[in-house]
Amino acid sequence: MPAVRIRRRKAVALASAAVLAGLAVPALAPGSAGATAPTPADARTAAVAAYAAPDGYYDGVEGKTGDALKSALNSIVSDQTKLSYSAVWDALKDTDEDPSNSGNVILLYSGVSRSKSANGGDTGDWNREHVWAKSHGDFGTSTGPGTDIHHLRPTDVQVNSVRGNKDFDNGGSAVANGGGSLTDSDSFEPRDAVKGDVARMIFYMAVRYEGADGWPDLEPNDSVNNGSAPYIGKLAVLKEWNEQDPPDAFEQRRNDVIFESYQHNRNPFVDHPEWVESIW
Known about the structure:
- This protein is an alpha+beta fold.
- 34% of the residues lie in helices and 12% in strands.
- Strand 2 and strand 3 (113-115) form a beta hairpin.
- The longest helix has 20 residues, at 2-21.
- It is globular, with a radius of gyration of 17 Å.
- The relative contact order is 0.17.
- Residues 168-188 are annotated as: Disordered.
- This is Endonuclease.
């Protein structure tokens, strides 16, 4: 793994510079906590091939589908460096950096660009959202799934509270300052620009945590109100979101930064979103 990362580092740097230079996100004033950074349409389609896994990373998955593919991917992505929960703060400031303002992060559900220093638990702060709600399996914030930054994202404190531990589904009423996100009594629908991101994070967690390492076997299902069971829904909707919102440059760069600088593993569904249908 270290040798692969070294070979990859120069290529990643060049690709990152080229892609981020082309992102047409409007410039934001430093510390502009309330500014929204829309994702331009061209950024979601251009440069999709600019980021890719290093040669050999997915060796052994050729020709596999279903449970065989899931098992092969689990063996690959389980080779990772684990972070402490406190280390997640600094990691997210890097992985979710606003490409137009290096002093800010982009908040997942709202799309707002907010100062990196405004992290905490108060109104107006951003905090560490577990996209796979930690109560769905009771894994908490201990090192493991509770600190895996492939599904931890910066979110507005109040929007995060509205999402709570709800499953994902379509429909509901608008979330205040949620960037177009919707919610009802038992589900949460993120804004359109990150629906696929959310789905691919859920699918990563289901592949990475298969009941080994002392952690629960996480699985998506077609239910809501899953509570403390190690399930999250709805599977059919998450599959639709994966198709409707393919990986963009921001999501792909995030995958590379996690691989290069932090956990040294990848979300395979960012690299190969078609594998969702092959497994589920």
